[in-house]
Amino acid sequence: MRNTIAMLAAAGVVATLATPLLAATPAEEKDTFQTYFKARFPDVPFQEFANGSYAIDPIGRENWEAIEEFPPYETAIDNGHEMWDTPFANGKTYKDCFPDGPGIESRYPHWDKERGMVVTLPLAINECREANGEKPLKYLKGPIGDLLAYMAFESRGQVIDVQIPDDDPRAMEAYEKGKQVWFARRGQFNFSCASCHAANSGTTLRTEILSPALGHATHFPVYRSKWGEMGTLHRRFTGCFKQVRAKPYKPQGEEYRDLEYFLTYMSNGLELNGPGARK
Amino acid sequence: MPTRRCSAGARAVSAAALLTLATPFARADMPQMELNGNAEAGREIAMDRSKGNCIACHLIVGGESPGAIGPALIAIQPRFHTKEAVAKQVWDATVRNPEAVMPPFGKHEILTEQEFKDVVEFVWSL
Q: Residue A271: inside a domain, yes or no?
């Protein structure tokens, strides 16, 4: 019986969110999305969703809390702080691009009306570098993870509040495209993001507990034990695509930025809690 | 570009339409074949992460640390009635249930034809 309800609820979520014909607003879709996960995990306090599978796996949580006593991302934060403070060759610093300081993660991703695209923080960082004659950083791993770790740390506690402006239909289009990416089946294994992170969240893939999608965007970059280093959200997207034997999209390309836009919007209301530590 | 095609098809698209997408690597209809595989070889495939990896989602007696996404692979014959029904399910589980997350092991050529026969034989024995 419970399985039937879960399946129908999941189908309901899928039907509501993935069928443009039903003309729900993004705000309504976000409510449906969040209600689904709250109903699926009724004992999890809302903000705890930002901790992923550690909100639903007591043994994993114990290990994670032990790790968090000496967080593996601390070096990254320190390195990132140094990067922030170190002037470019032309004498300017990141502060010249981001005058309000490093604690600005909650401003991203956002719709850039002038350029007609979703702008993410990593993209903005590289645009700052290039504007100042510096080489762009790689988007999946390496120093960008350090700088993002510092900025994420300085942004902890900020409430996610992604906006889809009314006065530009292209923003809505980007949201819809991101939504399609999330729900579409792909790869040789024919999985969508929803396959694991909606209706099968909380179940086990071998011994791995699948995390709910609510909260996915709150805690990047992450130090992942599996990687032995920091990685960005788009690195995780890339890994997931490869795991389902799908060809990944380009990091910080349109598809992943639109996906980030949709995914972060779905976590509106949660507090940022990066950088994170994960298995 | 298979990924592009998959991503263009929203979940709202019917399962029937999805099944008839002419992707170069997909064979929607299970071809005629003699289901005379080797069950022991099939067990290996079921436990092998790079092959069937059935244990990732299904409890299988004798398998370690099974996942719990799909139903337990037990009492298969009273549930499926014919070996062919099992074969069709492994070929493409979305035919019976469009919402199924189980990968289409036959249709997407995840397994070779021999591996497919072997794993069908194994599952049929459970």
A: yes
pLDDT string in tens for chain A (279-residue length)? 555 555 555 555 655 565 545 568 999 999 999 999 999 999 999 999 999 999 999 999 999 999 999 999 999 999 999 999 999 999 999 999 999 999 999 999 999 999 999 999 999 999 999 999 999 999 999 999 999 999 999 999 999 999 999 999 999 999 999 999 999 999 999 999 999 999 999 999 999 999 999 999 999 999 999 999 999 999 999 999 999 999 999 999 999 999 999 999 999 999 999 999 999
> How many angstroms away from the CA of A188 is the closest CA of chain B?
6
Chain B residues with CB within 8 Å of chain A CB: 1-3, 6-12, 18, 25, 55-57, 65-69, 94, 99, 101, 103-104, 108-110
Which residues is B15 bridged to in the sheet? none
DSSP codes of every residue in A84-128:
HHS--TTS--HHHH-TT-S--GGG-SEEETTTTEEE-HHHHHHHH
Q: Give chain B's domains with CATH numbers.
A: 30-124 (1.10.760.10)
- Cα distances (angstroms) measured from residue B56 to each of A190, B53, B67, B103, B124: 15, 6, 5, 12, 18
Residue A121 maps to a domain: yes
Q: What residues of B are in contact with residue A186 (Cβ under 8 Å)?
A: 3, 6-7
B103–chain A nearest CA distance, Å: 5
Tell me the chain A residues in contact with residue B12 when contact means C-beta distances shorter than 8 Å. 18-21
CATH number of the structural domain spanning residue A277: 1.10.760.10
Q: How many domains does chain A contain in total?
A: 1
Task: Answer whether residue A9 is part of any domain.
Answer: no
Q: What is the pTM (predicted TM-score) of this model?
A: 0.89
Instruction: For residue A273, give its domain range.
Output: 37-279
In the residue annotation, A97 being an active-site residue is answered as no
